Amino acid sequence: MPKIKSHSGAAKRFTRTASGHFKCGQSHRSHILTKKSTKRKRQLRKAATIHANDVRMTARMLPYS
Fold first, then answer.
1. pLDDT band at 6, cuts 50/70/90?
2. Is the distance from CB of 45 to CB of 26 less than 8 angstroms?
3. Number of H helices, E strands in the chain
4. Which of these, 19, 21, 24, 31, lies nearest to 9 by C-alpha position?
5. 10 Å Cβ neighbour count for 50?
6. C-alpha torsion sign, points 26, 24, 30, 43
7. Residue 48 neighbours by CB under 8 Å, 6+ apart
């Protein structure tokens, strides 16, 4: 049976943790940063985890992660 290709867009955005959850970067951090407070920008640096409803879809896009 042939290997399944990973979804390249998902592979760039998500990584699986040791516990099986998926890590992703926060949104709202790329531009128009002048109006956002320093505290808000600092908190957006941390990685977030994907919501439980999206885990199944993400796992399907990344079969070997």
1. very high
2. yes
3. 3, 3
4. 24
5. 17
6. positive
7. 23, 24, 25, 26
Predicted confidence (pLDDT) per residue in 31-40, tens digit = 999 999 999 9
> What are the helix (H) ranges across 1-65?
8-13, 38-43, 52-61
Q: What is the pTM of this model?
A: 0.82
Query: CA 12 → CA 17, 24, 33, 38, 39, distances in Å?
Result: 15, 9, 23, 27, 27
Query: Are 23 and 47 spatial neighbours (Cβ–Cβ below 8 Å)?
Result: yes
Half-sphere exposure of 64 (CA within 13 A, CB side): 6
